[in-house]
Structures are given as C-alpha cells and as structure tokens.
Amino acid sequence: MCDVALDPYTSHGHDGILKDNKIENDLTIEILVKQSLLQAEMGCDIIAPSDMMDGRIGKIRNGLDKKGFKDTQIISYAVKYASNFYGPFREAVGSKKNLKGNKKTYQMDFRNSSEALREVALDVKEGADIVMVKPGLPYLDIIRSVKDNFRIPIFSYQVSGEYSLIKNGIKRGIVNEDAIIESLVSLKRSGSNAIVTYFSLEIANQLK
Questions:
Q1: Does 80 participate in catalysis according to the annotation?
Q2: CA distance linking residue 79 with residue 56, whole number of Å
Q3: Domain total in the chain
C-alpha cells in the first residue's frame, strides 16, 4: 500500500501545486495520476491518495484502468481533517517548519461532520475501494456515521499526536499500558474494519 501525495516533495509543505499562494487542484491531480501509475508499475497493490484534492479518485481510477491496472485498489483518505494531532509527525520529518500557512483550504474543518459523508459519497462514486478517516480517536462519531451510511471498508488512522499523548501518559504514570488496546478497541467498536497505528509493534509483541 503506497501513499500518493506531493507534500513530501514540495518546498512549501503542501499536498498540491502552489500558485499565487493558492492550491492548483487540477494541475496537482495530473501529477498524482502519474505518481499512482508509477507506483502501480513498481508493484503497489493499493494506491492511497492522502492529498485531499477534489476529484482525484476518479482521475486516478481512470488512469489505472487505461494502463491495465484494473485490479489495483484505491484507499481514499476521504475524511482527512485539518487536525492539531499531526504535530509530532510533522516535527519528526521536518515539514512543520517548511509548511507555509496551513492546509485548511483542502483538509476538512473539525467542526464539520456532514461534509464527511459528502466526501465519502463522492469518492465511492469515483471508484474508491476503501475509505480512510484521519485522525481516529477525535472522530469516532464520524467513523460510525460512515459505517452506518456506506457499504465500504473503513480504515481509521491513529495519528502521531494520539500516539504521543497515550505514550507520554504511560511514561508519566498517568495511565497504564492497557490504554493502548482500549484506544484501539474504541476505533474498532466505532466501525473501523482496519486501523493504521504507531502502536503496531507493541500490539504485535503482546500477541506473541
């Protein structure tokens, strides 16, 4: 499963081409399609666009199909909020200091729940096989709402800020290690079919 986005490669830290301080949605999609095709050619089974550009799922699906990659699946970050919980990741990869402005023009407002259903509906119509809700714990209600309204697998993403809060709580003795599994079960209980989490290694070790 390969991430599709431009932010790791831009000097300004945004997920799209920036022109006159505005994101060029359609121009960005052209590059995302090329990126997706390259990943499929290299053997990627699932393409995961995390950029939040409008209409990219349909364009990527069409591009993959035309090149014979009809079995390559797409997991859409359909519900990706402009969240404060991405901080530790951005700090670790150095993108926090590079980001000019914020991503609120293309990521979702955390106050808005109805937009999540509209975004999922659009991406499903365009050909998404799986949808992602990101972050996870602050949006349990969104996961449940998507689960109740669509017959499509849902991934939730427990992001770096969620991980850091729990990890620091354990380190300081505020909570014990059972908080890890409790947080993951809450994501599962809300409707997640799969969970992306920084706790994967800890859970794997517990299951040995």
A1: yes
A2: 14
A3: 1
Nearest in space to 156 (alpha carbons), one of 58, 102, 81: 81
Q: Is 96 a catalytic residue?
A: no
Distances (CA, A) of 22 to 78, 90, 103, 123, 196: 21, 21, 11, 23, 31
Q: Which of 22, 34, 100, 134 is catalytic?
A: 134
Question: What is the residue whose two structure tokens read 């000097």?
Answer: 11
For the chain, give the percent of residues with pLDDT over 90.
Answer: 71
Instruction: Provide the pLDDT for residue 23.
Output: 84
CA distances from 46 to 51, 100, 120 (A): 15, 30, 18
| pTM over 0.85, yes/no | yes
pLDDT of residue 96: 55
Q: Which domain holds residue 153?
A: 2-207
d(CA 74, CA 64): 10
At 71, list the tokens.
Answer: 């079995």
Q: How far apart are CA 162 and CA 45, in angstroms?
A: 28
- pLDDT at residue 33, as a whole number: 97
Cβ atoms 121, 196 nearer than 8 A: no
Collect the ranges in the chain with pLDDT lower than 50.
Answer: none
- The SS3 call for residue 53 is coil
Catalytic residue among 59, 80, 103, 167: 80
The CATH number for 17's domain is 3.20.20.70
